[in-house]
Design goal:
The complex is a heterotrimer. By secondary structure, chain A is α/β, with parallel strands linked by helices. Helices cover about 35% and strands about 20% of the residues of chain A. In chain A, the strands form two sheets. In chain A, strands 6-7-8-3-9-10 form a six-stranded mixed beta sheet, sandwiched between helices. A four-stranded antiparallel beta sheet of chain A has the order 2-1-4-5, with helices on one face. Chain B has eleven helices and two strands, in the order H-H-H-H-H-E-E-H-H-H-H-H-H. The radius of gyration of chain C is 24 Å and the shape is globular. In chain C, helix 7 links the parallel strand 7 (about 160-165) and strand 8 (about 190-195). Chain C has two domains: about 5-235, P-loop containing nucleotide triphosphate hydrolases (Rossmann fold, 3-Layer(aba) Sandwich), CATH 3.40.50.300; about 245-310, no CATH class. The longest helix of chain C is centred in the middle third of the chain and has 16 residues, at about 175-190. Chain C contains 15 helices and ten strands. The chains are: A alpha/beta, B mainly alpha, C alpha/beta. The interface between A and C is large, with 58 and 60 residues.
């Protein structure tokens, strides 16, 4: 199942090969692009021209990475997703997606089909009343041939474990199922990167776990994943964690590197992993153990 | 909470002949059906109309109960038209009279026929949305309006708006109920007091609903944009519209119904006058 | 004030499966009741029965001796039982914060002076400064502030019981902490609190009793210690136990003696220190060195972590790859 996500070996099925026929949205500048799929270069953006939501933000997402972007409300982390998707354009600096600048209007459709964005509210992403129509919405907009749209739609629904649900009404799905349909809708555009903006914030724990599993399966299959979240248990599963505070990168490293810095995280009032919180509580009581995010390691330290 | 599970305008998933029909055909049939409903001025006409409607419901394999439920929220329209007819028409035996209001046997007949006609109209319209997904409906409307696009009518946009409106109808209904309950928790009463009091209570009900509509609209438009939506141009339509046998037959049936109604009308006016009675 | 459910069943429609079936429970005056259960377990339906927004298909709900089957009782009870729905800020409607918070007390028919006093007290209770926010539009506040205004609107009714359906949903950790602190204070002030939550931690740390709902029925009700000890049953209905509870079993499996069941981080830390005693950093390193092998690696890392606050932002700039 995962190999299918490599978009097949034949060149015709690859997303960067211009599709023959009625394709009107040709994805420019993407033949064999091998650099970092997302690059923020000193990006500043303001909603109201008074306070900057992001300020001088520089960050590179590497190919195939699973990156968690963490920060409190108002840290600028949601603005990040919309800047990637060219929904917002930087006031200063540049965002490049697959080498294409979001500031150039001509690149918009290429960018959006190559770096898809999944939003927080599952309801507001269901554009049509039937699951299978909704997943086809993106490919239809790309002007792909009908067979291709159908093929991608069915494949994408299968990838998120919703193959049986194509004929269901979107209104009757659970929040978690809606989010999976939303991911399928993005996947059907065959993106290189998927950015998810707090996809679990409105879901129950079960729905959240389902979404997290899907993102990891997609990442295993080669899709670069950027997960914007404030749930630490989700961030812990990433390859890399970037903490954003006041519109800038405050920390950047592996989950172990970032989450063992108790004082800094506490100062930003971010939630910390369980092992770190317990360690802090033990140290307060005069029992020294080193900070770790690995619960197994904490058990070993305590059982010395 | 599935509060708006049964609501006018919702889609009932299925794979019947009616579901698979071309949306243009269904729209045209509904149009003809509405003409028929206007022509059906007596019980004969209503019977023809009802037979056609029943046939459609059976073919759609949607439980009759579902269709009833989807029309239920609009029941007040029927009650209102019935009352209006009973009270204003003065024909036959008069039972009660006060100022401009009369209750008469003729009034009852009028009310019965008129209510049945309006009810069947709602039934027919509901059957259309029950068997047609919002996007199919949009495609159908767009295709039918296309000839008018040349004179500047935004066919695609109108169709897309209709489709989205229908998609969000149940969501808004849910939210409306929730807002009402939340305000009731704060001591609001919506069914007490004079007209002014009731009017005032609309603000805490409608203002959050509008706020929510704007929020949905904002987020939905971003979601559409991020999925490369850019209007009709260069857009594939997955559902290539093709008239099939069922479409021709369905349309023909609707025409037959209208002819039948015209014929009965002509016959009746030539022979027996007045109502079915 | 007490809330009593007597064999309550509820279905949203005649042909719908019951959302609640045969629920009987008593919430005594002053209790903090945590309600858990996954989506569709009947939690939200249960909550809406507490001030008569929904009326049982069968059975009775009695609040302070008033049977909510009676219309007048329902109106009376709504003065005393405040219900906060999920995302309560979506019900804000007025042009100013003051007007919005005043909506409830005005509906009660109170005089202007009394209403004003209640608005001030309610805003103060949720930690907002009257002078700063009263004349502002609620729609221009931050998400967390909007939620606090919405809660103030309920508190201005000066209820003796407050029912909150997932009051922290959608907030960031900081916002969650603020709201949880507020709920905690309300309980300390003597209010009866019913809180629906997905977070086992929040329930374990705050509730006097925990009610577990599953498939419209009461699966269990009891003290957190009691409920969270029945781990297998909770797993079976898709629920979890607090992380502290899970970690405690891992420590026990590794041979640590922790006789008392605990469900919060603080209690777990106390139990561990009671069992292992205190250790200085030097003592830890000595023990780790003696254990050798993997533990030795940890010593190296332990040495690092004190000064490990490197500025990672600089790392990013370097690896920009331009």
């Amino acid at each position: 199942m995962h190999m299918a996500l490599q978009y097949g070996d034949d060149a015709a099925a690859r997303p960067d090969a211009p599709t023959e026929g009625s394709a009107t949205v040709v994805r420019a500048g993407d033949e064999g692009f091998a650099g970092d799929p997302i690059v923020f270069d000193a990006v500043t953006y303001s909603y109201d021209n008074r306070t900057n939501a992001v300020e001088g933000l520089s960050i590179s997402i590497h190919p195939g990475e699973y990156v968690a972007i963490v920060g409190g409300n108002g840290s600028g982390k949601s603005t990040f997703g919309k800047l990637v998707n060219a929904l917002y354009v930087p006031d200063a600096g540049e965002v490049r997606v697959m080498g294409l600048s979001t500031s150039d209007e001509a690149n918009r459709f290429s960018i959006r089909s190559r770096a898809g964005l999944v939003f927080q509210n599952p309801d507001d992403q269901m554009i049509t009343s039937l699951v299978r129509d909704d997943v086809a919405f993106g490919p239809e907009n790309l002007g792909l041939p009908v067979d291709e749209v159908v093929g991608r739609r069915d494949w994408a629904l299968d990838q998120v474990g919703m193959a049986e649900m194509g004929g269901r009404e979107t209104y009757n799905l659970s929040g978690g199922q809606k989010q999976r349909v939303a991911i399928a809708g993005i996947l059907a555009m065959r993106p290189d990167v998927i950015v998810l903006d707090e996809p679990g914030a409105m879901l129950d724990p079960r729905g959240r776990r389902g979404i997290l599993r899907v993102t990891h399966e997609l990442n295993d299959a080669g899709v670069t994943i950027v997960l914007i979240t404030h749930f630490m248990d989700e961030a812990l599963t990433a390859d890399r964690v970037v903490v954003i505070d006041k519109g800038r990168v405050a920390m950047d490293g592996t989950p172990a590197e970032v989450f063992t810095q108790h004082e800094r995280l506490a100062a930003m009032r971010l939630e910390e992993p369980f092992a770190v919180r317990l360690t802090a509580a033990l140290r307060e009581r005069g029992l020294y153990v080193p900070y770790t995010i690995d619960e197994e390691e904490l058990v070993a330290s305590l059982c010395l | 909470m599935r509060l708006g599970a049964t609501v006018f305008g919702r889609y009932y998933a299925g794979d019947s002949v009616v579901h698979r029909m071309d949306p243009r055909a269904k729209l045209l049939i509904v149009l003809v059906y509405m003409v028929a409903a206007v022509l059906a001025v007596d019980l004969w006409g209503v019977a023809v109309l009802a037979a056609f409607t029943l046939a459609c419901v059976l073919l759609s394999r949607i439980p009759l109960r579902e269709v009833f439920d989807s029309v239920k929220p609009l029941l007040f329209i029927l009650v209102f038209t019935a009352l209006l007819n009973v009270l204003t028409v003065s024909e036959g035996t008069v039972y009660w009279h006060w100022a401009m209001l009369t209750i008469s046997s003729g009034g009852f007949w009028h009310a019965l026929v008129f209510t049945l006609r309006v009810g069947l109209m709602l039934f027919g319209a509901s059957l259309l949305t029950l068997t047609t997904t919002t996007i199919d409906l949009a495609d159908g409307i767009e295709a039918l309006l296309k000839p008018f696009a040349r004179v500047g009518l935004p066919a695609h946009e109108l169709a897309m708006m209709t489709s989205i409106a229908l998609r969000f109808l149940p969501t808004f209904l849910d939210e409306g109920v929730k807002i009402k309950r939340a305000q009731e928790s704060r001591g609001a009463t919506f069914d007490e007091g004079g007209p002014w009091q009731r009017l005032k209570m609309l603000v805490p009900l409608l203002s959050p609903l509008f706020a929510s509509a704007f929020r949905h609209a904002n987020e939905l438009s971003m979601a559409m944009e991020s999925r490369c939506y850019h209007g009709a141009e260069g857009r594939t339509s997955l559902r290539a519209l093709r008239f099939g046998r069922a479409d021709y037959v369905g349309f023909a049936m609707a025409i037959v119904m209208v002819v039948l109604l015209v014929v009965t009308r002509v016959m009746l006016s030539a022979g027996v006058t007045g109502h079915f009675a | 004030m007490s809330v009593v459910f007597q064999d309550v069943s509820y279905a949203y429609g005649a042909d719908q499966p019951p959302a609640l079936s045969h629920v009987s429970l008593t919430i005594p005056d002053g209790q903090f009741l945590g309600v858990i259960g996954h989506t569709g377990s009947g939690k939200s339906t249960l909550v809406q029965h507490m001030n008569g927004l929904l009326q049982p298909t069968s059975g009775r709900v009695i609040v302070d001796g008033l049977d909510l089957a009676d219309r007048r009782s329902r109106h009376e009870v709504r003065r005393h039982v405040g219900v906060a729905f999920q995302y309560p800020e979506y019900q804000l409607f007025a042009a100013t914060v003051r007007e919005d918070v005043a909506f409830g007390p005005t509906n009660l028919g109170l005089g202007a002076a009394e209403v004003d006093g209640r608005v001030r007290r309610a805003l103060e209770r949720v930690g907002l400064a009257y002078d700063e926010v009263a004349e502002r539009s609620p729609f221009h506040l931050s998400g967390g502030q909007q939620r606090r205004v919405a809660l103030a609107g309920i508190l201005a009714m000066e209820p003796r019981t407050i029912v909150l359906d997932e009051p922290m949903a959608g907030l960031d950790p900081r916002g969650c902490e603020d709201i949880l602190g507020l709920v905690h204070r309300l309980h300390e002030d003597g209010m009866t609190v019913v809180m629906v939550s997905h977070s086992m931690e929040d329930v374990a740390e705050n509730a006097d009793e925990v009610l577990v709902m599953s498939g419209g029925r009461v699966l269990m009700k009891g003290a957190p210690d009691e409920v969270f000890s029945r781990r297998e049953e909770l797993y079976r209905v898709g629920l979890d136990v607090p992380q502290a509870t899970r970690f405690q079993s891992r420590l026990r499996a590794a041979g640590l003696s922790l006789p008392q069941d605990v469900h919060t981080i603080e209690a777990l830390a106390d139990a561990i220190v009671a069992s292992v005693g205190t250790r200085t950093k030097e003592r830890y390193q000595e023990l780790a060195a003696r254990a050798g092998g993997v533990a030795g690696d940890r010593v190296a890392r332990a040495g690092e972590d004190a000064g490990a606050t490197k500025d990672a932002g600089a790392t990013t700039q370097g690896s920009d790859g331009r």
